[in-house]
Amino acid sequence: MELQFTVTPKRLKEKLMKLANLENPPAVFLWGKPGIGKTQVVYQVGAELGLTVKVLVLSLMDPVELKGFIFPDREKKRAEILPLNFPKEKFILFFDEFNTAPTSVQNAAMRIVLEKKIGDYELPQGTLVVCAGNRIKDKAMVNKISSAMVNRAIHYNVVPDFGDFKEYWFSKGLPEEVIAYLEMDTQYLSMEPDIDKPFASPRSWEMVGRLIQNGINDVEDIGGVIGEDVAVRFETFMKKSFGIGEIVENVLKGKKVYVKEDEVEKGIMLATILVNKVDENNLATILEYSINAPKHMAPYIILWIKTAMKLGKVKSSQLFSSNIQDLTMKFTEKYKFVVE
Q1: What one-character DSSP code corresponds to residue 191?
Q2: Hey, what's the torsion of the CAs at 162, 167, 168, 169, to 10 degrees?
Q3: How many helices (H) and strands (E) does the chain have?
Q4: What is the rounded distance in angstroms from the CA atom of residue 206 to the CA atom of residue 203?
Q5: What mean pLDDT do residues 82-86 have?
Q6: pTM: predicted TM-score of the whole model, two decimal places
Q7: DSSP annotation of 59
Q8: Which of 50, 62, 154, 226 has the greatest CB tally within 10 Å of its CB?
């Protein structure tokens, strides 16, 4: 499936939320590279709307399971079709990895997608059916879907977005190092899929974050997740950022300690860590630090304030509270090309 229009994970979530609230929502098919967050979005929608997400992986199923099991009833002298065990209230039926299934299984699923029926059983009113699959060029061993299936759903081409990823990353409390590195090399957030070697994707970066949290950070460990070339770049970034912890500690103590002009990696790491560290107790300290910062620090200060405000770590109400307002005005004057 090749679509020129694209949606980011955050935009997709907004669309699915609207569709899930319809009385009879149409089926949806999500396309995109492996590991970009398609499945995560479906779970997030279910959690926020209080809907159960029932996942069916078609490649693990038989056509009979989707048509309903034939069960002989000797008393009634007839055969009954028993459907899968689904919730009694409306829910989200999620066919993950839809096009990894053989054609026979896909065909059996088409009636569910269009009519929301399995044999004589009908899905609860309001149930949202979502399918997800990788494209043929993603090397994920997928099969083509029929034109009949194409015509049964709304299709979305999902693409990764660093802003969405960053918001998700901070919400999970994952290590700042990854976000700081990707601020410099955003192109490595999501690489073209490969079957012969590991490749970077939002999912594999999250795995890297979990490893780092648990003290597993050797280049061969990281390379086994995101690929050796990217792992070497990441390790180089980390080495050039060495000592940033002491600088952050001094900044929060109110000391005017700044990274050098050629220490780009440290500057980005400082900005990223301060996003996580800022709160109502130290906001004034960081603002004063920023006001006194040398000219070469401007990109890092801008990165900090933009990210902190977008993620809600710093709110407008805090910036214009009575005890900080004067500092905010000075900050705004210095960085007026950013803060309006």
Answers
A1: P
A2: 80
A3: 16, 10
A4: 5
A5: 67
A6: 0.85
A7: G
A8: 226
